[in-house]
Amino acid sequence: MTDSTGSFLIKNLPIKVYKVAPEKAGLVTIPAIIDFTATASNIINTNLFIATSNIYSYVSENNYSETINEISIFPNPVKDYVNISIILKQSISFTVSIQNIEGKTLQNNSFKDSRNITLPVNNLLSGIYFIKIQFAQRVPVIKKIVIQ
Predict the structure, then answer these.
(1) How far apart are CA 131 and CA 26, in angstroms?
(2) Cβ(89)–Cβ(60) under 8 Å?
(3) Which of 114, 117, 119, 139 suits 53 as a labelling partner, its CA being 20 to 30 A distant?
(4) What are phi and psi of 18, to 5 degrees?
(5) Cα separations (Å) of 7 from 19, 43, 49, 51, 135?
(6) What domains does the chain contain, in order, with CATH numbers?
(7) Alpha-carbon distance 126 to 94, whole Å?
C-alpha cells in the first residue's frame, strides 16, 4: 500500500530475493526481481524507484479480439468460489489456473469453448492471487483476485 504520493516504506526486510509487482489501473504488469542477497552486507537505506511511465502490460484482451468476446471474473474480492465467464467468438481450447503471488500454480483446469466456470478457493489463504487464462500458442490473460 502506498501513501498519497505513491511512495512506500518497508523496514527490516530479511535478506533474500523479492519480486516487486507494481500496479497500474487496468493493466497486469511485469514484476521486477530485486536480489538483496548478492550485496547483503551493504543494503542499508536502499531506495527503489519505479516510474509509472515505465509500467506496462504484457497482456491485453485486445490482442484476442478475433477469439474472445468477453472475460468476466467475479466476485472480487472472493470468499469461497470464484466465477469465471468466458465468451468466445470461436471454438478454442484453454486452461484456467490460479497462481499465488510468487507465480506458483495452485490449480490448473483445461476447457474448450465458451463457458461459465466456478473454481473453489476456500482452501486458499487470504491474499492476492492471479487467474491465468492460457489459450493455445498465445500470451495468457492474467487477472488479479483478492481472497478474503
Answers:
(1) 15
(2) no
(3) 139
(4) -120, 150
(5) 17, 19, 9, 11, 36
(6) 17-54 (no CATH), 61-147 (2.60.40.150)
(7) 27
Report how far residue 1's alpha carbon sits from residue 11's, in angstroms, rounded to the nearest whole number.
14
Cell of 109: 483446469
In this predicted structure, what is the pLDDT of residue 120?
A: 95
At residue 69, the 3 state secondary structure works out as strand
> What is the rounded CA–CA span in Å between residue 26 and residue 57?
9
Specify which residues 17 forms β-bridges with: 35
CA 87 – CA 104 distance, rounded (Å): 27
pLDDT averages per 10-residue partition of the chain, 148 residues: 62 70 58 62 55 45 65 91 89 91 90 90 93 82 89
Q: Quote the CA–CA distance of 3 and 68 in Å, as a whole number.
A: 37
Output the pLDDT for position 139: 72
Nearest-angstrom CA–CA distance, 82 and 102: 20
Report residue 133: phi and psi, to 5°.
Answer: -110, 110
Answer for the pair 56, 27: CB distance below 8 angstroms, yes or no: yes
Predicted local distance difference test score (pLDDT) of residue 99: 92
Instruction: Please report, as a single letter, which amino acid is at residue 53.
Output: S
